[in-house]
Amino acid sequence: MDLKVGDKVDLIVMRNSGIGFSVLVNEEFEGLLYKNELYQKIEEGQKLVGYIKKIREDEKLDISLQPVGFKQTIVKNEILILNALKKENGFIALHDKSAPDAIKYQLGMSKKAFKSAIGGLFRQKLITIAEDGIRLNNFD
User: Fold this and answer.
1) Given its phi and psi angles, is residue 135 left (phi above 0), alpha (psi -120 to 50 degrees) or beta?
2) Can you tell me the distance from the alpha carbon of 19 to that of 37, in angstroms, rounded to the nearest whole number?
3) What is the phi/psi pair of residue 95, to 5°?
4) Is the separation of the CB atoms in 130 and 137 below 8 Å?
5) pTM here?
């Protein structure tokens, strides 16, 4: 197996198992997408792009739909939040006390990822965090 952690791979969703979805990786290897890490609806037969998260001892693969690595994911989530803010006229009624499901539903990311991303945007002075949500600074 010439794959390594972090590699971008092609996936075909095979079947739904109890803990996630079995996927065919690069039409050659078996992998698993864990349900608790999915932030979008997926179906059997669907083709996706994923990333190698872990290579297990039995040579099966743990797969993620987000790029592996903290920095890449944060930047991707920051861009996602900025785009959502622009689309919503500079304001989203989500904040660090919002329910995880509300964040997942509205932005397709975990609460932890959301908090990391808004922290980064706040430090860059791109957003203001208020009790009722987040606001894009200098939005015309």
Assistant:
1) beta
2) 10
3) -155, -175
4) no
5) 0.54
Instruction: Tell me if 53 sits within 8 A of 64, measured CB to CB.
Output: yes
State the Cα–Cα distance between residues 121 and 74, nearest whole angstrom: 10
Task: Return d(Cα 26, Cα 122) in angstroms, integer.
Answer: 39
Q: Helix, strand, coil proportions of the chain in percent (round to 5)?
A: 30, 30, 40
* pLDDT tens per residue, range 55-93: 998 888 999 987 766 566 667 888 899 999 999 999 999
Mode of pairing for the β-strands spanning 61-64 and 29-34: parallel
**Quick one: tokens of 36?**
């608790």
Q: What confidence score (pLDDT) does residue 41 get?
A: 83
Tell me the pLDDT tens digit for each residue of 9-25: 999 999 998 899 999 99
Residue 67 carries which DSSP code? Answer: P
